[in-house]
Design goal:
By secondary structure, this protein is mostly helical. It has helices at residues 10-42, 45-71, 85-114, 124-152, 155-166, 168-184, 187-216, 223-235, 268-285, 298-304, and strands spanning 241-250, 253-262, 290-297.
């Protein structure tokens, strides 16, 4: 998928992105309601694990909705770099909630597995209908989100789509567990599926929490992103060298701060044109990036630079 928007009118892209995340929130609300009912009917821990995953989906979708809405808001006097850090704070809270949910499901599953005579599941057929409907709704949402992401280049919508695609695994697992219980009476299989789903939830929560913590601590962008920015600077005509390349990621937005070394004898107009071209190339690859480029005369840096990046 291209990282660039296809629409020349940014309002059209925003409308499509908004439709995708609103659909995501709507589907998540429906799935949470259906699975709450199915859990009450079946008492299946695999359904409980799928319910916890759908609750996570709802929070992630709400965060995506906030991200799309905040993307249209310019920085203000009190938030010169925007409001994207709110996404990371929300993600950190989500990771804690997921870990607690995964732990509770795992404990309940272990207790049921160790029980010499576990209580049988109930109304497996109704639960299977709910899980089947959940799979179909999730597939429909993923297809729409991918179409929107291809047309607008939205990384938020693309990430949300990947998240929902991964959610098909616990849904299918719960469906299989209910079928096995109804067909063969193997109640403990439900607990085994629930343990696997709880493990997946925990791994996902730790990944979300780590990325959110790194962003809040202003950790540099991934090495491959830094290397791409550096390559653009090195290959930009008129740039004789660069130094002090600093990056960070807040929410879904990349921040780049870079000093480029130019011929000190050229005019300010020429220097600005070189910097503006480089900035445009960075934003083309990383849409929505906040890029600040400083100009330095190359001769001065050749004399005093000790970082090995002078001309």
């Amino acid at each position: 998928m291209s990282g660039q928007a296809v629409f020349s009118d940014p309002r059209a892209s925003r409308r499509l992105n908004l439709s995708a995340v609103v659909a995501s929130v709507g589907v998540a609300v429906i799935l949470v309601g259906l699975k709450l009912w199915a859990l009450g009917e079946t008492q299946a821990l695999s359904v409980a694990a799928s319910l916890a995953d759908s609750a996570l989906d709802l929070m992630v979708s709400l965060a995506a909705l906030a991200a799309v809405l905040y993307a249209a808001r310019p920085p203000d006097q009190d938030h010169a770099f925007g409001h994207t850090a709110a996404e990371d704070l929300a993600a950190l809270g989500q990771s804690v909630f997921i870990l607690i949910s995964a732990g509770a499901i795992a404990v309940a599953a272990l207790l049921r597995v160790s029980d010499p005579s576990p209580a049988p599941l109930r109304a497996e057929g109704r639960g299977m209908v709910v899980m089947g409907a959940s799979i179909l709704l999730t597939l429909a949402l993923v297809l729409w989100q991918r179409r929107v992401a291809r047309r607008t280049g939205s990384k938020v919508v693309a990430a949300d789509s990947l998240h929902y695609l991964g959610d098909l695994v616990p849904n299918i697992g719960a469906l299989v567990a209910l079928w096995v219980s109804a067909r063969y009476g193997l109640v403990r299989f439900d607990s085994i599926v629930a343990l696997g789903a709880a493990g997946m939830l925990a791994v996902g929560a730790l990944g979300i929490g780590r990325r959110a913590w790194d962003a809040l601590m202003d950790r540099a962008a991934p090495d491959e992103i830094v290397a791409q920015v550096a390559a653009l600077a090195e290959n930009q005509p008129g740039v004789l060298g660069y130094h002090d390349l600093k990056t960070r990621v807040a929410g879904s937005r990349l921040f780049v701060n870079l000093h480029i070394e130019l011929d000190g004898a050229q005019s300010l107009h020429e220097a600005h044109a070189i910097g503006a071209t480089l900035k445009h190339k960075i934003i083309q690859i990383f849409p929505g990036a906040d890029v600040i480029i400083h100009f330095d005369p190359a001769r001065r840096w050749n004399a005093v630079s000790d970082d090995g990046r002078g001309a």
